[in-house]
Amino acid sequence: MLVRGYTRFAASCVVFLVSAFFHELMVSVPLKMPRMWAFLGMLGQQPYALLVHYYCPKGGKLGNMAMWLTLILGQPLALYMYFHDYYVLRFK
């Protein structure tokens, strides 16, 4: 995309959008439960990365902690949301 004249930011946004779509597809199809949790979680990473870059331009310990925070809390939170929806649909 960069070769075609798109900015780095635009290319990054498109890649995140495509990646978010396929992550959602990989979760929704096996569960037979189309939700937007994985898609929204992936899309939320882009503004979060911009915020972290704004507040921690050199990275460092704070930037590293912000990255690990999303890995430790973000992914399990998304799984819990799918589990909740699955449980409500199947067992109530």
Characterization of this structure:
82% of the residues lie in helices and 0% in strands. The chain is mostly helical and 92 residues long. The longest helix has 32 residues, at 60-91. It is flat and about 50 Å long. 9% of the residues are buried. The mean pLDDT is 88.
Characteristics of this structure?
92 residues; mainly alpha; 82% helix
Helix content range: over 70%
The main pleated sheet reads as:
none
Cα separation of the termini: 47 Å
The number of helices is 3
Secondary structure elements and pairings:
Blueprint: H1 8-31, H2 37-55, H3 60-91
Enzyme class: transferase
EC number: 2.3.1.20
Keywords: Acyltransferase, Endoplasmic reticulum, Membrane, Transferase, Transmembrane, Transmembrane helix
Short description:
By secondary structure, the chain is mainly α. It has helices at 8-31, 37-55, 60-91.
